[in-house]
Description:
22 helices; alpha+beta; elongated; single chain; five-stranded antiparallel beta sheet; Beta-Lactamase; 686 residues; 55% helix; 15 strands; disordered N terminus
Amino acid sequence: xxxxxxxxxxxxxxxxxxxxxxxxxxxxxxxxxxxxxxxxxxxxxxxxxxxxxxxxxxxxxxxxxxxxxxxxxxxxxxxxxxxxxxxxxxxxxxxxxxxxxxxxxxxxxxxxxxxxxxxxxxxxxxxxxxxxxxxxxxxxxxxxxxxxxxxxxxxxxxxxxxxxxxxxxxxxxxxxxxxxxxxxxxxxxxxxxxxxxxxxxxxxxxxxxxxxxxxxxxxxxxxxxxxxxxxxxxxxxxxxxxxxxxxxxxxxxxxxxxxxxxxxxxxxxxxxxxxxxxxxxxxxxxxxxxxxxxxxxxxxxxxxxxxxxxxxxxxxxxxxxxxxxxxxxxxxxxxxxxxxxxxxxxxxxxxxxxxxxxxxxxxxxxxxxxxxxxxxxxxxxxxxxxxxxxxxxxxxxxxxxxxxxxxxxxxxxxxxxxxxxxxxxxxxxxxxxxxxxxxxxxxxxxxxxxxxxxxxxxxxxxxxxxxxxxxxxxxxxxxxxxxxxxxxxxxxxxxxxxxxxxxxxxxxxxxxxxxxxxxxxxxxxxxxxxxxxxxxxxxxxxxxxxxxxxxxxxxxxxxxxxxxxxxxxxxxxxxxxxxxxxxxxxxxxxxxxxxxxxxxxxxxxxxxxxxxxxxxxxxxxxxxxxxxxxxxxxxxxxxxxxxxxxxxxxxxxxxxxxxxxxxxxxxxxxxxxxxxxxxxxxxxxx
Length: 686
């Protein structure tokens, strides 16, 4: 017993209660073994008080075990059948046992020797436990699925059960007998009142209600047998009533309760049986739609979603077959067909559209199929079909179709159910599509992140440092990756080459071309030092890879630190801007874009010029993302605005000048999105 009390689910109060229970049980056993309780009133009262405490303790502990758990009512009733049957069998076995010794039931507590009395004592304790369990089951059933507060009725029943039981020791024909009769009558009246307040039965399925009818009949029969047994069997009367009149009375009242309660339950269930099928259908609809709501954000694969939808449609819409029609332009394709072949499904869909009902009704339409479908093309004829559209933001994306074999057309309720289900299905497919797009977008963003990192590696990670020229460079792509390009090449200790280029188009394709021309320029600068020759050779190489829709503008130049000059060629790129002595000059050397012409014309048109450099000369190279940046009026930033910013900040270092230019462009076009890559290279000749 000590081990039991040390178990973690027993709290301190419960441990004390159990200890007191066993003490009281031992005291009662001592009284029953050595005294006859009916001899004195005081001993009889003590006996009843001890019995009342034992019943209370057993009920409290039993309720803590079974009262707080969710048992199905069917399983509780099956438990009652088993328990009462076992009790009846047990009493008969005990009666046979004592009959072998010639002991009658009315004298069992007098004629039995001391140790022999322990058997009826144990049987009575087991009976008390059984009665407590039965009463708790009645309590659970009374409050199950109740929507009103009916505690007053049940508490009153408990009170009169107790009063009727504790006054059971009053002898018949006593002047106080009316007290016991009054309490008993009131208890029976409350039994009837509480028995008609049954609400849980309405929430059972049709199958469970059929089981309930059988169990109700069985329990009425068993409780009737138990009541008759308690009134006619002298052995039972002597063993239980002489043990404690209150237990006998409690047993009597519980049998009455069982007979009344399950008789009422039988007829109530019988009246509810015709509507059980409709209730089952509604329950299935609600549970399926709840499951559908949870599934909407979880199922991503469109095929898996379609299979799930048609499975649920069979349950929710009480159909024999279901499938989905995906609409692609003017064609319709059956998918996820359940309980029907694709040929049958396609024939039914054709019948719908040939009848014209789908074209005119945008919500739901039905069709009688008997005279429409060719029986040779199907194994079994479907009599009626219903179709509902799957609507999305883009319009009708498809249809959900159900069919049934019965001769009964779809009623108003079934049509509404299908319409509601189609709305859920539309949301599910729309969510699936959006989730797929989101995942695809995320995948592309990751790929663009990789491309962005690759492009950063294609651009110079650090700018050249020397005693002749200061350099600043800025690259801002319009998208994740861009088609602008700049680079520097140390041709020799006295020469520094540079290039700035702009690939037509934007995004990934432009970035790939940019990567290609980087490799071309790097290869050519190892062999050639003339800007014109480099651009001409690059143009001929690009003929093999550049498509007809793409071209590249570029400016290539070479600083000569010894001659103090710059050699420069331009292939259709933006003009070179020179700032000298507070004045700005544009240099627009002749040249056409790379990839526009692959004949000798390209080399003949491209011009190579030399510019002698003076101290503090500023050279500005840029792409059209700067000059063509637009404001809210769609006005271009323009070359004049660029010149103004450079002239106002010409005394500053090259990094500050570059930042001022970018800031000016950003402020000018802040109300408009950046539509082109921005690349800027600033040189100052020292």
